[in-house]
Amino acid sequence: MSRSFLPLTGRAIWVAPLVATLLAGCAKPNKELSPASFSDLNPAAKPAFQTITNQAEVLAVRLPDALFTLGPGDRIDIETIGKPNSQTSTFVAPDGKIYYNLLPGLDVWGLTLEQTRDLLQRELGKYITSPEVAITLREVASRHVWLLGRFNRPGIYPMSGPMSLLEAIATAGGTARSTSQVTTEELADLRHSFIMRNGRHLPVDFYRLLHDGDASQNIYLEPDDFVYLPSTVSQEVYVLGAVKTPRAVPYQEPMTLSSAIAGSEGPVFYELLTASTGGRVTDAWLSHVAIVRGSLSKPEVAIVDYRAIMKSGAPDVRLEPGDIIYVPNSPYGTLKSYVNMVINTFVTTLAANEGLRAGGAKAIAVGVSVPVGGGGNNGGGSSSGGH
After folding, report:
1. What tens digit of pLDDT does each residue of 15-28 get?
2. H or E element, residue 15
3. Which end of the chain is more exposed for a tag (fewer CB within 10 A), N or C?
4. 75-139: CATH superfamily
5. Where are the domains of the chain?
6. Residue 327: which of 270, 257, 387 has the closest Cα?
7. How far is CA 379 from the centre of its chain?
8. If you ran DSSP here, which 8-state letter would residue 366 be given?
């Protein structure tokens, strides 16, 4: 069964009959299927395709400079040195304050342990002479990393200090492998694995890190980083953008671009109240459908004229498992920004849905809206919600 994502638009939409899309996907069944041509040429604009710069190589060798700071939920032990039985344990309250002895609530949200100690000594000094305080961090609840997908122990893990990607993978028990007696096949799709930080995709190459031992990809994580390893078992293609039902479509050999888009119930249409257009126009830029293939950190892209396949009998394009199909709703400025936008839409959608599952939310899946302007000028990501 395919996994659907709730599509979004900023206006009411009417959808073309599914029959028309299915006919388009099945038209000319005997015509030749051509493999996607992954070239550097952009048919809509002059700029050539550029490989996404991998900033991970710069970040990997540098430890985070910032010290740990307290936040709500963290537990610390406080002891007044020289006073027996003065040790006590306290949590940082939801308002960011701690309560110790007879002191009023002290705001420690965002303070380091050393700054918190100095604050306590200063406040205690109003009542006792030259107090000395020792603070120990006992439990972290304000900082986490999300390690989901094909880990042996997927989950949401506390982050009490600097944590590299390899350390995080080890914390989650490593990547999952087949338990079959005849194979130890890797169950994680390393080429489509990703890290999302602050809503943006980080171009880390998991295959180079775990298969080739490339330490330049071993970046240091930050709080709330989302690390996801998709499954190699589920053979799917992902259809996103200006289609009625953005979703992961089960891959069936042979699968073509037309059948994948038909599997998402076809391009989006809306009513335009003018006599000249006949009342219906497409809300999709069908002549510039993108197929993104391969590693997310160094993807290949083909721009396909889907309208020509439907209307002019142009050869359909054969797909491969893991392909990402994106139907834009407007032209793009550069191919690089277009590819960045497609990848960010893909990782944001997967992260939102997997995050809901990890949190136990009983809600409809988060979907994808098509960015205004197709993301051509800034390579922006998607937003999620409902209409």
Report:
1. 233 223 323 333 33
2. strand 14-15
3. N
4. wza like domain (3.30.1950.10)
5. 3-55+235-375, 57-64+142-229, 75-139
6. 257
7. 15
8. P
